[in-house]
Specification:
The chain is mostly helical and 262 residues long. The chain is 54% helix and 4% strand. It is elongated. The longest helix has 29 residues, at 85-113.
Length: 262
């Protein structure tokens, strides 16, 4: 090996010395020849010791670690997956280089932010004696507007009743109830026939039952003449048809084809 031109004081630590040796030998930091670098490192320490230079403990520790890695490289490796020692050294040196590159950027930040203390937040009690100028009329108008808006929203609010989650109301049951009501009362208005409908589904089923009974002519309608309320059907009365057709007659009528128009 050619004569060393370095001094121990030129390096901040053993990693700087190793990087200098790698650069001097012009080898790839990812493919370090451990044996060569170890021999040059030990020779450098020997020359420094011969010159009565005090060698720091960290340089000696790195020397022992390099000898361990060199011995491991010389031994046969039975496990192919075992990590080579040069990769451990490469990782250490790469991280060291990254730290040295970041140091110049971090130093001014340290100089700027060091010796600073964070001040605690002051708890300022509110001044409850201060009363701002208020327009009483303006406040009253604002309150009235809020109340009017709230009332308007309540009026337009729609209560949605999910029909799917409710049980299906059979029309047949409502037909039986309507017939029973007319049998007992004799006659009844539409309002009276629909009054026992607690839900919208019951109301629809009852109304469909009335339509079905009218269709099958089992009940008849009687509308009072000259009654102004009859337009809304309030006074229209329903009663049982004494001549209501039987089920067989209805089935026969439905099966009979309609005559062709001439």
């Amino acid at each position: 090996m050619e004569q060393m031109t370095y001094r121990l004081s030129d390096f901040e630590g053993p990693l700087d010395l190793l990087i200098a040796l790698i650069e001097k030998n012009k080898v790839n930091i990812l493919d370090i020849p451990i044996a060569l670098i170890c021999d040059q490192y030990l020779e450098f320490l020997s020359e420094a010791e011969a010159m009565d230079m005090e060698i720091a403990t960290e340089f000696l520790n790195m020397a022992s670690q390099l000898m361990v890695w060199k011995s491991a490289m010389l031994l046969p490796h039975e496990e192919a997956a075992e990590k080579a020692p040069r990769f451990d050294l490469s990782d250490i040196l790469i991280r060291h280089q990254q730290a040295k590159e970041a140091a110049p950027k971090l130093h001014p930040l340290y100089a700027y932010y060091s010796n600073r203390m964070v001040k605690d937040t002051d708890e300022i009690a509110p001044d409850r004696s201060y009363v701002a100028d208020q327009d009483i009329e303006g406040l009253l108008v604002a309150v009235r507007r809020i109340n009017s808006y709230r009332d308007a929203m309540e009026r337009v609010k729609t209560n949605f009743t999910p029909m799917i989650s409710k049980p299906i109301v059979p029309v047949e049951g409502k037909i039986v109830r309507i017939l029973d009501t007319l049998t007992v009362r004799g006659t009844a208005t539409l309002r009276e026939l629909l009054q026992n409908a607690p839900t919208l589904a019951d109301l629809i089923a009852s109304f469909m039952g009335v339509l079905e009974l009218i269709k099958t002519r089992k009940i008849l309608m009687e509308e009072i003449e000259n009654d102004t309320n009859s337009v809304r059907g309030e006074e229209t009365r329903f009663f049982l048809n004494p001549d209501a057709p039987t089920e067989e007659e209805l089935a026969a009528a439905e099966a009979t084809p309609a005559p062709n128009a001439q």
